[in-house]
Structures are given as structure tokens and as C-alpha cells.
Amino acid sequence: MTFDPALIAASFALVEPHGSKVTKYFYEHLFQNNPGVRGLFSQHMEEQEDRLWGALGGLVANLEDTEVVTRILRGLGARHVGYGALPEHFPAIGASLIAALEHFAGEAWTVEIERSWTALYGVVSATMSEAMTGAAHGVADVSHGT
Which residue of 18, 24, 43, 89 is 20 to 30 Å from 37, comparing CA positions? Predict the structure, then answer.
């Protein structure tokens, strides 16, 4: 399944006016449904919420540039190893991301939008997981300087 960059951008524009409320909802959903991951995060979530919001915006803004997106995701994946994140956490994170986007898109949310975001998240999680595995084994990605 592939994602539709135009549909991703249009649906992100629907939730963008809500800003950090989206990431606050995301983390509340994540921690409520997966309490075991709470310990991976600081008690003060505002900075983390802002970083996630910035990363989402950057991802959406660069969807047409595969090289930039890949570099961003590999960097994120490598950094997340240091936080104790594991590839096994990605399904829970994806479910919470979709829940947050759907919540703030409201009635505009469609099956097609969900499929596209799910496909995009598949690319995100696969790319980050690959980088996490490499970083955990001390493998540097010399092609992207990470």
C-alpha cells in the first residue's frame, strides 16, 4: 500500500490549526493504552510535544523529497535508540498517531485518509526501525552522515 502525498498534506492541514493539542492527545492516548512506554518519557512533556509536532510538520512538508525524508527518519531512529525506544513500540505509536489525527480531523476523516496515513506510517516505522537497529549495533550510516 502506498500513501498519497496530496491527501496526507490536505488532511494534515485539517489538524494543523490545533497545533500542540494534537500531540498532547497523542501522548495521552499512547500512555493510556500502553502504560509501559510512559517511563521512556520525561514527566514534563511540553518540549517533547513540540518536537513531535515539528517532526510531523517537517515530514509532511517534505513528502515529495524522498532523500530528505529518509535522512530525517534515519536521524530520528538513531536518536531514539538512546531514549530506550524499540521497534516493537511502533505499532502502539502508530495507533495513537492515527487516533489523534482522526480525532482532530473530525468528520472530514475518511477511510482513504486513514489508509494513506497508515501507509506513510509504515514507511516511517520501517525506516526508523532500520536506523535504530543499525545504531544499536554501532553501524554508522555514512551515506547520510548520521
Answer: 18
Q: Which of 2, 36, 16 is nearest to 104 (CA)?
A: 16
Rounded to two decimals, the pTM is: 0.87
Place of cell 531512529: 77
**Which residues, in sequence order, are CB contacts of 111 under 8 Å at separation 6+?**
none
The answer to whether 1 and 84 are in contact (CB under 8 A) is: no
Alpha carbon distance 117, 136 (integer Å): 28
The full 3-state SS of the chain, as one line of letters, equals CCCCHHHHHHHHHHHHHHCHHHHHHHHHHHHHHCHHHHHHCCCCCHHHHHHHHHHHHHHHHCCCCHHHHHHHHHHHHHHHHCCCCCHHHHHHHHHHHHHHHHHHHHHHCCHHHHHHHHHHHHHHHHHHHHHHHHHHCCCCCCCCCC
Digit-coded pLDDT (tens) for 25-55: 999 999 999 999 998 887 788 988 998 999 9
Report the percent of the chain where pLDDT is more than 70.
92
Phi and psi (nearest 5°) for 79?
-65, -35
